[in-house]
TrEMBL record, chain A:
Belongs to the binding-protein-dependent transport system permease family. It is a multi-pass membrane protein. InterPro entries: MetI-like, MetI-like_sf. The keyword Transmembrane helix applies. Residues 103-498 form the ABC transmembrane type-1 domain. It holds the Pfam family BPD_transp_1. This is ABC transporter permease. The keyword tRNA processing does not apply. It comes from Cellulomonas alba. Gene3D superfamilies: MetI-like. It is found in: Cell membrane.
Automatic annotation (TrEMBL), chain B:
Residues 144-335 form the ABC transmembrane type-1 domain. It is a multi-pass membrane protein. SUPFAM superfamilies: MetI-like. The chain crosses the membrane at residues 71-97, 148-171, 183-203, 209-228, 259-281, 315-335. Its main location: membrane. This is ABC transporter permease. It comes from the Bacteria. It is found in: Cell membrane. The keyword Transmembrane helix applies. The keyword Membrane applies. Keywords: Cell membrane, Membrane, Transmembrane, Transmembrane helix, Transport. The lineage of its organism: Bacteria, Bacillati, Actinomycetota, Actinomycetes, Micrococcales. Residues 1-20 are annotated as: Disordered.
Length: 512, 351
């Protein structure tokens, strides 16, 4: 294992070295870096040319410049090194501070989009695999192909023009006509009926229940003015938490008498978690990332502890499900706090809560939750745009790999020896279907990091995409190389992680 | 393809053990080699057998033609290509649409599209006019033409390079493989948008969409190279390759005449999907300002120039986008149909 990682790291080092060299040379020869100054006729022309020549080392041939750039990078690697700048851009400003501000917003965007796309993609992929050749399967297949064929900047502009503006208008005055309510309820009903499938009788029942539930929920939310001052409150946390705990237990442990204890400990974890959240209320106003992680750890710990104490002979499983319940409670707490912060953000953004440009509202001056709500609202549209494309590939991939696993002999054996469908699907098929996905996600993450260039441009984020784009336009290699260094290292590291994860998940593979 | 391999290995195993004088061996060698050059002839020969087995090419075609989505994609793509190339003409050859995309005209009906679906009529400016009165139908058609040319060029160049590199690496192994695969690793580390933007900027000096397509093709071969190498690694161990090698067929010939025809499935599928990716890549690059430069036009460049006009003249934004989506979707469906058709495990016909 150590030998494998070391060897891979050494090989990766040389690969990154070679690809940076290739990229540096390509950028450097792409155009004349003094083009604009040579056409400039104002005063101080010679001084400016001299200054830029000094900043970019234009008096050195290109291979020499690359070595100089490597020295600049080396200063950042050597411990205790000074002058860590990653080189100067053409206006003689160091690149590193620019990269530091840029990388945060880009990573936020890419991580949010990847995680969401992964969750939704895996779930729909599995459902389409289980309902192969159904209406839902064909529908999702078509949607996936459509997403593959969408130019991301075109979609982003459409989202800005239609979703953002109309949604903002609606949020300013959240009312709905009865016709719209009925239409949404009908659509929701049809969707659920198609997803769950089965006999015609089941479908009609599902349709009716889903439509009615959607209608009632929306009606209650609208009449109580929920959309202008949303909240879920302690009661909401408790109810949703218990329901989710029930679902997790049903999914991971089943509801048979043998594992009934898991159900009880999981529900207990939800109730205890709610109590802990109530007790933690004084912390909420002055919260920062450290206290947030501490509270999250406490909530997960409560889940694990309840599982271990009350789990009996299934205590391991109970602890695992308890941990998942703990994570759920953390998410619920965060959602509750962020919803409570929404009116403040709404007012601060001048009644246009879903912004179309930038990564955060300048001079917001709110507490932890208010700032994060603002950031999350800024993430909505770009994440949606990036998600559409990743989602399509994750869905297709999960579906293919799930179908592959479901047709294996051992799955038939598992069914033949009388295991129930839940165990076959969750414990035997799903875990193995996820293995090939690990490679894809690792590879895709680095790709999305590069692809975010386009999305950032549409939404006016000053992230790494802007660094790259202006750098390349101005034939200014150092900012471009800073962008590129990050993506190259990310690619190499994520591929290594994928290989390690692969070996960890699939015992047939030995790293040597 | 499998039929001719089978035939060849059969004749080899039948005839090599015979203890005969050198002249007969010589004569047989000539026969074998001539049979080998005659790869295409094998299919007609098998058609003469009374109960002819379906050749694999025919099986693939039948499967493909039964794939409804792929056929739909093929029809849509053919329609778009014919429309795009016949309306404004190709190069010096004039088309049936006589308005020039460069000439501003007085605004007709506020520049709104005059296209009517029922009863069908094109009107004066079917896709409307842009803000200075140029005919948008001619603009979109010209742009789509450029985008399609770039896509095909990228698909072709990228697939050719990927195939050759993968084939050579997989066949020769050893240091050739190490060098070529490390080169692939190096290029794969660079995000595609980034390296494509850089080479597109270099291509600007060379001018035109042809240079752009060629240059982008030079950086999009990595995925196929890996796939083809994998195929070659397994195929080079097969008996028919041993047989060919034992009678002294040169390496180049083994690669291109013996092994490559067996990998044609993955190559065609990958080339098709590369074309749809290239349409999107080209439009993204033009959008970022590194792709097609004015006065040339492409679908991505049209979207970029009229992005600000989205509010007052939404059709300037919709038409090029819809063309990109339609072309990419059609090619994707064709690629999916081809993949199913080439997949030997796929016995069931699905829609």
């Amino acid at each position: 294992m150590t030998v494998f990682v070391t060897r891979r790291l050494i090989v990766s080092f040389f690969i990154v070295l070679a690809s940076t060299a290739l990229m540096y040379v390509l950028v450097a020869v792409s155009d004349n870096p003094l083009k604009d100054l040579l056409e400039y006729n104002g005063p101080g022309r010679a001084d400016r040319i001299a200054a830029r020549t000094r900043a970019l080392h234009l008096d050195v041939p290109i291979p020499g410049r690359y070595v100089l750039w490597l020295q600049d990078v080396g200063r950042c690697v050597v411990p205790g090194g000074h002058d860590c700048t990653l080189g100067l851009d053409r206006s003689s400003r160091p690149v590193l501070p620019q990269l530091q501000t840029a990388i945060g917003s880009t990573l936020r965007l890419v991580v949010a989009a990847t995680v969401l796309a992964l969750l939704i993609g895996i779930v729909t992929g599995i459902v389409t695999a289980l309902r192969q050749y159904s209406t839902f399967d064909y529908g999702i297949t078509f949607v996936a192909f459509l997403c593959f064929s969408l130019p991301v900047f075109w979609v982003s502009t459409l989202l800005k023009q239609y979703i953002a503006i109309d949604l903002n208008n609606w949020l300013a005055n959240p009312t709905m006509s009865y016709a719209a309510l009925f239409a949404i309820a009908l659509i929701a009903g049809v969707l659920w009926a198609v997803v769950i499938g089965g006999q015609w009788r089941t479908r009609w029942i599902v349709f009716g229940v889903a439509a009615l539930a959607t209608f009632t929920t929306l009606f209650v939310l609208l009449t109580t003015d929920w959309f202008t001052s949303p909240s879920i409150g302690v009661v909401g946390i408790l109810v949703i938490g218990v329901v989710m705990a029930f679902l997790w237990a049903a999914l991971f442990a089943g509801l048979r008498p043998r594992t009934r204890r898991v159900l009880w400990t999981s529900i207990a974890a939800a109730v205890l978690g709610t109590i802990a959240i109530v007790l933690a209320q004084p912390l909420m106003d002055g919260m920062n990332w450290l206290t947030f992680f501490l509270v999250a750890l406490v909530l997960i710990g409560i889940g694990v502890a309840t599982g271990l104490v009350g789990g009996g002979y299934v205590k391991r499983l109970a602890a695992q499900v308890g941990a998942v319940t703990g994570v759920t409670m953390t998410v619920l707490m965060a959602i509750d706090q962020m919803l409570a912060a929404y009116p403040f953000v709404y007012q601060q953004t001048g009644g246009r809560p879903i912004p179309t440009t930038g990564a955060s509202t300048p001079n917001l001056d709110g507490n932890f939750w208010q700032t994060n709500t603002d950031v999350a609202l800024h993430l909505v549209l770009p994440t949606l745009a990036i998600m559409l494309i990743s989602f399509a590939s994750y869905t297709r991939y999960t579906r293919a790999s799930m179908l592959d696993v479901l047709n294996q002999d051992y799955v038939r054996t598992a069914r033949a020896k009388g295991l129930n469908e839940r165990t076959v699907l969750v414990r035997h098929s799903f875990r193995n279907a996820l293995i090939p996905l690990a490679t894809l996600v690792a590879f895709d993450f680095a790709g999305v990091l590069g692809g975010a260039v386009v999305t950032e441009t549409v939404f006016g984020w000053s992230g790494m995409g802007l660094l790259f784009q202006t750098g390349l336009k101005n034939v200014d290699p150092n900012p471009v190389m800073a962008f590129f260094l990050v993506t190259a290292i990310a690619t190499v590291v994520f591929n290594l992680l994928a290989d390690i994860a692969y070996a960890y998940l699939d015992p047939r593979i030995r790293l040597s | 393809m499998s039929t001719d391999d089978g035939l060849r290995s059969e004749s080899v195993s039948e005839e090599t053990p015979l203890p005969v004088e050198s002249e007969r061996i010589e004569a047989q060698m000539h026969r074998l080699i001539s049979a080998d050059t005659d790869v295409l002839g094998v299919e007609t020969a098998s058609a003469d057998i009374p109960v002819a087995a379906r050749s694999s090419a025919r099986t693939v075609m039948m499967r493909f033609f039964r794939h409804k989505a792929a056929m739909g994609g093929l029809i849509v793509l053919a329609f778009i290509v014919i429309l795009v190339f016949s309306s404004v003409g190709i190069g010096p050859i004039p088309g049936w649409w006589h308005q020039d995309y460069r000439v501003p005209q007085p605004l007709y009906n506020g520049g709104h599209p005059t296209l009517q679906l029922w009863p069908f009529s094109l009107g004066k400016h079917p896709f409307g006019q842009d803000d200075i009165g140029r005919d948008y139908f001619a603009l979109v058609m010209t742009g789509a033409q450029q985008s399609i040319i770039i896509a095909f060029l990228v698909g072709f160049v990228g697939s050719a390079i990927g195939t050759i590199i993968g084939a050579v690496a997989g066949y020769f192994r050893g240091w050739t493989e190490s060098v070529l695969m490390r080169l692939t690793d190096v290029v794969i580390t660079i995000p595609l948008v980034a390296i494509a933007a850089v080479v597109a900027k270099i291509a600007q000096d060379w001018g035109g969409v042809w240079a752009l397509g060629l240059f982008i093709g030079l950086v999009t071969w990595t995925g196929l190279a890996r796939i083809v190498r994998g195929e070659f690694l397994s195929l080079r161990e097969k008996e028919f390759v041993d047989a060919a090698r034992s009678i002294g067929v040169p390496s180049g010939r083994i690669i291109f005449r013996h092994i490559l025809p067996n990998t044609v499935g993955v190559i065609i599928v990958s080339a098709t999907l590369a074309m749809s990716a290239a349409i999107l890549l080209e439009s993204a690059l033009s959008f970022l300002g590194f792709g097609v430069q004015p006065p040339n036009t492409s679908l991505g460049q049209l979207i970029e120039s009229y992005r600000a006009a989205m509010g007052p003249r939404p059709w300037l934004f919709w038409w090029p986008g819809l063309f990109i989506v339609a072309i990419a979707l059609a090619i994707n469906f064709i690629g999916d149909g081809l993949r199913d058709a080439f997949d030997p495990r796929q016995n069931r016909q699905k829609a």
